[in-house]
Amino acid sequence: MLIYRVLTAIILIPLVIIALFFAPLSLFSYLIIVVCGLAAWEWTNFLAMTKPVNKIIFTFSVVMLLSFLYLIPNTELIKYTLFNYIICLSIIWWLVAFLMVIGYPNSAKYWSNSLLIKLLFAFFTLVPFFVGMIELRSINYTFNAYTGAVWLLYVFVLVWATDTGAYFVGRALGKRKLAAKVSPGKTIEGFLGGVGSAILISISVYLTGYFQLSFITFILSSLLAILVSVLGDLTESMFKREAGIKDSGNLIPGHGGILDRIDSLTAAVPMFAALSLYLL
After folding, report:
1. C-beta atoms surrounding 225 within 10 Å
2. What are the distances in angstroms from CA 248 to CA 73, 119, 245?
3. CA 128 to CA 88: how far, in whole Å?
4. Which among 179, 173, 229, 243 has a CA at the least distance from the CA of 199?
5. pLDDT grade, residue 280 (50/70/90)?
6. How does the average pLDDT of the chain come out, rounded?
7. What is the DSSP string of the chain?
8. pTM of the model
9. 6 — pLDDT class (breaks 50, 70, 90)
10. I want to staple 270 with a disulfide (CB 3.0 to 4.6 A). Which of 81, 90, 210, 229 is the partner?
């Protein structure tokens, strides 16, 4: 398992950095639409879609929706307002997801057999993630094309630190299960180790003075992004468990699919964007 993590990091991290810092905003946006499209294709496994035509229709619908949101003219106030609502509504979704995870498997009786509800889950996972990625990448873009890239990279590093810290601390010290019915491999010790590692990074980054945010705004946005990143991972694990599958896909050999790689980010990115840009 560790060797797969290392190999994945060696391949994916440079690609992420190249996309963040060297792709123009338009190309970056279309790349994220592609990523979300691949994630939507994998999401059909949670929807019990087996016919290729149904998978294609769902994936195409997600791609068209995200493309429409991106192509709304920037001069229109409606785009700013719409993105604001989508980002902020994602907070409600992750509160609901938290209740679903802690109540699983009993909570599944309210949504497991409802296609409509599971479609809403897909919407509130993928669409706010896309909007959050674009909103953060667009920060100060006209004057400095790299500002938003640094913001996004910071959120990515928080998520990576949380995941890596949890993995190593959990393996070394883990005894008490964090959410045994959802993801038996995760422990409370690993959770604390991952969160602690990310918080240390957050404080260190703030002390550099790069982010022109108040200490309270920066730390609260970062802390909640860290915590919800764990929830994003657990929520996808819950969906996979309910669907009876181990991985969301097989795009990354030996290491699952796109959703398996971005599950934490789908929660952390919109949460950080909502709090740092709109609410705090």
Report:
1. 28
2. 34, 16, 7
3. 9
4. 229
5. low
6. 92
7. -HHHHHHHHHHHHHHHHHHHHHS-HHHHHHHHHHHHHHHHHHHTTTTT--SHHHHHHHHHHHHHHHHHHHHS-TT-HHHHHHHHHHHHHHHHHHHHHHHHHHHTTGGGGGTTT-HHHHHHHHHHHHHHHHHHHHHHHTTTTTT-TTHHHHHHHHHHHHHHHHHHHHHHHHHHH--SEEETTTEEEEEHHHHHHHHHHHHHHHHHHHHTT-S-S-HHHHHHHHHHHHHHHHHHHHHHHHHHHHHT-SSS--SSTTS--HHHHHHHHHHHHHHHHIIIIII-
8. 0.94
9. low
10. 90
Contacts with 201 (C-beta within 8 Å, 6 or more apart), sequence order: 157, 158, 161
Residue 177, C-beta contacts closer than 8 angstroms, at least 6 positions apart: 184, 186, 187, 188
